[in-house]
Every structure is written in structure tokens, then in C-alpha cells.
Amino acid sequence: MHLKQLEIQGFKSFAEKVTLELTKGITAVVGPNGSGKSNVVDAIRWVLGEQSAKSLRGIKMDDIIFAGSTTKKAIGMAEVSLTFTNVEGTLPLDFNEINITRRLFRSGESEYLINKASCRLKDIYELFMDTGIGKEGFSIIGQGKIDEVLSLKPEDRRNLIEESAGIVKYRYRKTEAQKKLEDTDQTLIRVNDIMLELK
Ligand code: ATP
Asked: What's the pTM?
């Protein structure tokens, strides 16, 4: 699996559509201070489902939409897409190429898409779970992350090892199943109450 292409439009400093082709090997993004290098990484983290505006160096989520500059007007929507090659089938979808997109409108409305089909945020999380690519995956090492890893509490370090070992998805599925069981228990209690009332 290989991140092949990144498309950004209306996200932070990228008012116009920008397409970055990432060939195999090392790609370096260079530029003066404040030119938008970190915004590229923020865009990747955002399309992978980041929900914390603070993690994206903002205060509220719509801070990521291009807010205008001296020469350009503000924009109403941010859109970021990533395209991965999937010939080895690492991602659990039967496509040689997988494209994910996230959109956010100033109205607050947002959309996620997998291969141009509308999906839930949950589908994006599940697609990348245990691949190391998710928003919490270790494919993105932000500034200060190494220090953070070295000073993690034992439980946090365990989470880190679990993500690397690929067992996070089983923990996630267990939590989902437990939630369903709790819902079912509540439904049973309600049904019992109704039956008692009817007797
Ligand atoms: P450094 O080398 O200092 O870390 P950088 O190249 O990583 O800088 P970024 O932090 O990615 O730069 O980009 C900062 C720029 O992005 C600032 O000029 C800021 O005004 C611009 N920016 C951030 N959010 C928005 C937004 N919503 N609309 C327009 N511009 C934005």
C-alpha cells in the first residue's frame, strides 16, 4: 500500500486546488516559515478523520476552511482527498486503488466518501484500523511526538504497542459488541415493563 496522491482545496492556506503526486521513495516538502508545510500534514490527518480542532492547530473545526487572504476571498468549503494503491489488498476493500475524501462546509455540514461513495466516519476509521495509517497511526509523527512517546504512561505505551501489533481492531469490535449488548439489555427491560403493564 502506498499513498499515491493528495488533493487539497479550500483547506487552510490552500485556496486553489493543489495536487501532490507522491512517487515511491522519499518526498520532502520544503518552503519558508508559514508557507503551509505543516498544513499538508494537517490535511492528511483531517481526511483520516481527525475530530479535534486543537490537534489541527485551530480553535473550532471551521478554522480549517480557507479564511481569505489579501488577494483572495474566503471559501465556503474545504475538501481533501487521499489516493492509496491497494494492489496487495492491505486495505479490506476489493479495489486496486482506494480514494478517501472529506468535505466540510461553513454551514457545519460535512461528508466522507470512499471511492466517491458517501460513507460514515466510522467506515474510514475501520478501513485504516491496524494499518498504522489512521489519524492516531504511527505513519504520522508530528512535531514533539517523539518526546511524547518517551514520556507516555505505561497504559498509553501499551496502546501504542497494541496499535503496532494490529490488535486495536479486536478491542474496538469488543467495545462495539458490548455497546450493542447494553442496548439490547435496555430494550429487554423496556419490553418487560410493557409486558407487566399489559398483564
Ligand atoms: P513553519 O515552518 O513555521 O512551521 P509551515 O510552512 O509549516 O511553517 P503552516 O503552519 O503549515 O506553515 O502554515 C501556516 C499558514 O497557514 C499561515 O500563513 C496561516 O495564515 C495559514 N492558514 C492557516 N489556516 C488558514 C485558513 N483557515 N485560511 C487561510 N490561511 C490559513
From this structure: 0.82
**Cα(110)–Cα(108) distance, rounded to whole angstroms?**
6
DSSP secondary-structure letter at 40? Answer: H
Overall size of the chain counted in residues:
199
**Residue 82 gets which letter from DSSP?**
E
Q: Separation of 163 CA from ligand 1 center, angstroms?
A: 30
Annotated binding site for ATP: 32-39
Which residue has the CA at smallest separation from atom 23 of ligand 1?
12
Q: What is the pLDDT along the chain (199 residues), one digit of tens a residue?
A: 899 999 999 999 999 999 999 998 899 999 999 999 999 999 999 999 999 898 899 999 999 999 999 999 999 999 999 999 999 999 999 999 999 999 999 999 999 999 999 999 999 998 998 787 876 666 788 776 777 778 778 887 887 777 777 788 888 889 999 999 999 999 999 999 999 999 8
What ipTM goes with this model? 0.95
- Report the phi/psi class of residue 123: left, alpha or beta, with left for phi > 0 and alpha for psi in -120 to 50: alpha
Paired with 6 in beta bridges are 20, 82
Q: How far apart are CA 78 and CA 13, in angstroms?
A: 11
Q: In whole angstroms, what is the distance from residue 110 CA to residue 80 CA? A: 12
> How many angstroms is it from 36 CA to the middle of ligand 1?
5
